[in-house]
Amino acid sequence: MQKRHIDLFALPSQTAILFWLITATLLGAILIGLTGGHIIPLWPLALILLLLPLREFMIRPEREMRKLGLFPLPEGDEFKELRASIDVLAKKIELKRVPKILIGADCDEIYEMGSFRRWYIVIRASKAKKLQELLVNPRKAGLAEVQILHELFHFKNGDYWELGYLAELFRVSFNLMMWVLVFLGGWVFLLVLVKDAFFQFSITDLIQHMPVDIRPTMEQILPSMFPSDAEMESLRVKAEGINFAWAVYFISNISLPYIAVAAILWRFYRPSLWRIREFYADAGVIAVQKSIKPFIEFIRRANQVPLQAAPEIAVLSIREIFQKIMKRLGIIFTGFFWPDFSKRFEALIIPESVFYNWKQIAWFLGFLALTLEVFLATPLSLPVVGNNPMTFTTLVVTAALVYFLLPQIVMGKSAWKDALRVLLVIFGIRTAWMFFTLALMWGLYFIQPNVLMEVLQAAISSVARYAGNDPISIDLLEFLVDASVINVLQIPIIFVVQIVSVTGLLFLIKRVLQWYSFIRDSQHFKRIVFSLTFGVLFIILTLVMPIAMAVLKGDFSSFIGASGIFVILGGLTLAGGGIWFFVQNKKHYQTGNVAHLWLWVEYEDE
Amino acid sequence: MENKFQPSSNPANLEVIRTISQEIILSVAPEEDVSAKELMDDLIEDFEDGLITTANTDAKISGGFGHVDLVALVVIPLVVAVLKKFFEELIELGFEKYKEWLKDHQEKKQQLSDKVDQMVEEQYTIISTQVNSTKSKSKEKVVKQTTKRVVKRRLGLSE
């Protein structure tokens, strides 16, 4: 019997949420670290980091073909049914284009890959034969179709580009930032080596060391090639003003935090994304087949072997033992992707089980906020430089939390308690980190004030992007009191901002769902949620956070000029959004439940 | 008297195997309860036909489907195998007449109980080696103990 289940595709997909969360964090970290004033211009590096992954993503299929020796499925009748089946099923699920088949001798059994316009299903040669055999047998064709549909839904769901792009973004990020670290570090090291020679360099001395017969010629040529004595003197003064230790520290500070953030995202967040997409591909198969039976039968049969009375105990070769160890190490370092089958099955019977619960969301976002705070900001930066280090994290957490809690709102459950719990966990994690840092600083103040002074000099130089030799003059006690008060106070301010914005957004979305004849379909709903969320984020960025930080620091001077224009824009967005909401609410709101048929899908689950 | 144990074809046997397996799974891996119920009848039928479903932990081998790593893949065949051996080798009765027979053979209870222990140990080794479920390997002790306990209770033997 067909039963009603929530349609996973009616809501913003968890795969897309995770993709944008990881991508926004990575790209945000790039922009925060590499734009703005620096002792050397770093915006070209930011541009390369933005564009190179895109280029690598576009040429990924060709690279994979060369690397794995993949070739197009041979023309002719041998795989006629396989080709036809992919063609028919792709059209059935309304894919924009039909993926081409690539065959490999030593690749994974079956997977999808592609760039924006070129889509491929890669199948191992032996697997292609098996699929073909199943497809020519009318009683077994359904089993092959399950697997083909599953791969096609990775295209339909956009997994091919989201995962493909992210894989390249990670690869390029690691390689490029390691290169930056080595290259710029090498330059600074070279400068340190030649520093003394440069300070003592004199054209007159150089000419005196040359053979006597060429000296007259050199006396005419060389002075025009080198800076004049006055210019050299000026350069010397500038060079003497550079603290090379700070320069090395600065280089490591623009590359290492980014590498660390990327490594944490890659190890702990990427596996969740890779894993969750499988639930969506499965849901697509079931939505087409209107029953879970073929899927379950496929899984069983695909993994079935004849029962042996007494299996032989396998003696592993050294190579096999090595492969097992490497596989285990691979899982430790990269995380395990594939979901347990019982979880996938549960997701078909109870699709809501795909959505994260509040504990998972709390640790997910709490750890992310901590990572960003540890690597991209420092408790020192707020009182010294005046930048608010948590704006970026506040925006990321607010958007992600609302999207993660969306299923609860749609299913008519109250989500504000879960929102509060999640934000309290993040608040707790941030507070613990803040007090730990402040305790360290106060501890050093009483035990080793000189060390604290050096630490502060390094941190302030890095945050201020300053590599000069002039010592930074600060009163340690006054600085510590300021840093403690302002940093501790910003935690509740951000907490309140997040509570108000998240619960406000959840209320708006809930109310929109109660508007009669307003939401047309799932696409319209997704657009509304997107507009509301990003409208609120814009208001937080331009209006709420600048005002909150100005109140915190008691300094409103920053509102004069460009910042003031952004505050006005934020205010206008708030007023415009408020009027729109008021008008629409008056027009569409009615008490009682509004039926949203687009939220449901029917299929047999027993 | 029925001298060939039919796990799936005989509805009475099928029902007992279902009940025992479900109880073990609920105790050992409750998260698999839903999927185990769905897979159960087919796995029992497969076992009767001499087939067993293996856990493929490597996505490279099983394609996009990957990771079929269930305790149920070991527990269900294990229950079938133990009961099959029990009835075929020792009693040659179906469940229908077994309890009546046991009333008259109380002195054999301990002997049968020991035999169940031995069968569970033997069959677990045979089945788990083939199924290759890493999840059940980590729960080997509890799977064996629970299977022994539940099967013996169901057969009216001392635990």
At a glance:
The complex is a heterodimer of chains A (606) and B (159). In chain A, 71% of the residues lie in helices and 5% in strands.
Key features?
heterodimer, A: 606 residues, mainly alpha, 2 domains, two-stranded antiparallel ribbon, 7 strands, B: 159 residues, 8 helices
What would you call the structural class of chain A?
A: mainly alpha
Order of SSEs of chain A: EHHHEHEEEHHHHHHHHEHHHHHHHHHHE
Bin the strand percentage of chain B: under 5%
Multimeric state: heterodimer
Secondary-structure element order of chain B, N to C: HHEHHHHHH
Taken together, the total number of domains of chain B comes to 1
What about the largest sheet of chain A? 4 strands, mixed
- Tally the helices of chain A: what do you get? 22
Annotation, overall tally of beta strands of chain B: 1
Low-confidence stretches of chain B: none
Q: Which chains make the largest contact?
A: A-B, 42 and 39 residues
Shape descriptor of chain B reads: globular
Q: Main sheet of chain B?
A: none
Q: Helix coverage percent of residues of chain A?
A: over 70%
Order of the strands making up the biggest sheet of chain A: 2-3-5-4
Radius of gyration of chain A: 30 Å
Low-confidence stretches of chain A: 379-388
Helix content of chain B: 55-70%
Shape of chain A: globular
